[in-house]
Amino acid sequence: MTARILDGRALADKLRSELRAARVSLGDRPIRLVSLEVGHNPAAKVYLRGQRRAAEDVGIELVEEHLPQDAALATVLGRITQLNDDQSVAGILVQRPLPPSIEAREVQGAIKRHKDVEGMNPSNMGAILYHEPALAPCTASAALRLIQESGIDLAGAEAVVVGHSEIVGKPIAMFLLHHLSTVTVCHVKTRNLAEHTRRADILVVAVGKAGLVTGRMIKPGAVVIDIGINTAADGSVVGDVEYASSAEIAGWITPVPGGVGPVTVAMLMRNTLRAAGLNV
Ligand code: NAP
Q1: Per-residue pLDDT tens for 243-270?
Q2: Which residues, judged by CB distance below 6 Å to any ligand atom, belong to the binding site of ligand 1?
Q3: Which ligand 1 atom is at minimum distance from the Cα of 264?
Q4: With b meaning 16 or more CB within 10 Å and e meaning fewer, what string describes 134-150?
């Protein structure tokens, strides 16, 4: 079998055009998304470029703010408080990585729940348990949307999530559970990873280790969502799933790049419109 590709760029285009159409109902009112960066990071620059393009496409004004690398936590939190209180700001986005002295969770927790467009504030994370997140984590939402694009019936499907981070693994596991998949979450202490992955009708991998999953670990016909972003020895960007061997076995697969990444950015734009009051 040769897997069909779950094309994240095409899906993101479609999602952005839906968002653009919905945004019209807000008229000329500016929708402002503030991106806060502490220090200067080349990786953040790449993400920011994609976010800016998507924002312009949807009709969102992305405002870049920078604080110095040695900014104190109190300074960062102080700026977040001002942005929370600023009626002209719909959403607040914190670029990562943050300097080691700044605890990401503390910063995210300081953002007002309804401006937390990354969906990582503890109260938005908690709402996932109740199946009612207004603003859900973008990458997990993107992964779910890509799985749904495959047309697989989630109810009763064996779903295996590799990686249990707060930002990706745990929320996607919860989303799949809400859709009544039978969910297994694997992590660094999982004894025989392949034994689990080979059972999966839906396999989501979010670890950050190139080649962790190979074709031999995949159930024929499975939907494979590769969230990992790694730099290969030749400088190219690869996922956690060995693409060539896996695409021969899977039914559907996301490429890296061009899979989860662009849809994640579209979800960020969706959350921003939601933060601005739209029901999208
Ligand atoms: P993270 O916080 O480092 O979490 C990685 C997870 O993988 C942890 O739960 C870890 O378990 C687990 N793990 C480590 N080694 C493992 C192994 N050998 N077998 C099974 N599980 C293992 O990373 P993250 O933020 O979730 O990101 C994961 C990857 O997704 C990264 O490559 C990141 O760049 C990428 N990412 C992509 C997007 C996108 O939009 N495409 C967005 C976010 C992240 P322990 O904690 O127990 O060690």
Answers
A1: 999 999 999 999 999 999 999 999 999 9
A2: 139, 162-165, 167-169, 186-188, 190, 193, 206-209, 212, 227-230, 260-261, 264
A3: 40
A4: ebbbbbbbbbbbbbebb
